[in-house]
Amino acid sequence: MNEHHIRWDDLQIVSAIADTGSLSGAGRRLGISHATVFRRLTNMEARLGVALFERSRTGYSPSPAGEDLFAVAKRVQADITGAERRLAGQDLKLSGTIRVTTTDTLFAGLLAPTFETFRADYPDVVLEVVISNQVHSLSKREADIAIRPTGKPPETLIGRQVGVIRQAVYGQRRHWQVAPAPLDALTEYPWVGPDNHMGNRALETWMAQHGLDKHCHYRVDSMLGMQTATRSGNALSVLPNYLGDADPELLRLTDPIEELDVPLWMLTHPDLKRVKRIREFTRIIGEHLRRTLDEQT
């Protein structure tokens, strides 16, 4: 194998095929066509004189030579990502791009207004927001900052807890006159609950423990969807206080449910902690979140 003929583009092709197990998957990851991936792989194998993948009906798996190049690709990518972070750390101006990942519920209920204020105060900063309930990798620079509810933040990231998300039972305001009410008085009413795909195990467990499953014939796979469903009928649901209290069509019917408290964290990669725009963003947004959540007792 003549390593002088191995280029970074070659390593990207090998890495994408090894990760996805197919030419089409590699093409989607790299933003090129299936045919282009096939042509570049074929040319690379001819140039190096070795098969890099074993083809089968189930996909592409690396050969020993392919495994070797895949390991090299991962090391090179890690070096490039580290260099990018170190260069970003030299930025002394409040400019550049900040890429934030958060959930749809947090963005709609807490973050969008203060993000707009930040943009107005720092117009040279480009703010990119990844709205997703999936965890994005900060180590691969898919995002610079993560704002997420979690009881156990990853040890590879740094950050701080900016508050506690509290939750309570809500109902449509026109159906209710008095609040709060004891939970026992609400158990016979219809309920809106989380769908299994939502992944809210704590809420699922709590509803099961209080016998609410048998009254739950309406399930939604997002918290915003549960809010909309509750506004639209006479069913009850558990919602974050920051979401339910701000909705004029909803009424909080119970005190916050302590078992459902969840810490809210703002996290970033250690290599970015000295970047001025990252420090300023986390300070401003963190203070806003802390004040807002402290008021929702």
TrEMBL record:
InterPro entries reported in the protein's UniProt record: LysR-type_TF_proteobact-type, LysR_HTH_N, LysR_subst-bd, WH-like_DNA-bd_sf, WH_DNA-bd_sf
Gene Ontology biological process: DNA-templated transcription
One function term, GO molecular function aspect: sequence-specific DNA binding
Keyword Transcription regulation: yes
Keyword field: DNA-binding, Transcription, Transcription regulation
Superkingdom classification of source: Bacteria
Domain annotation HTH lysR-type: ranges: 6-63
PROSITE patterns the record matches: HTH_LYSR (PS50931)
Family the UniProt entry places it in: Belongs to the LysR transcriptional regulatory family.
Identification of the protein by name: LysR family transcriptional regulator
Organism: Halomonas aestuarii
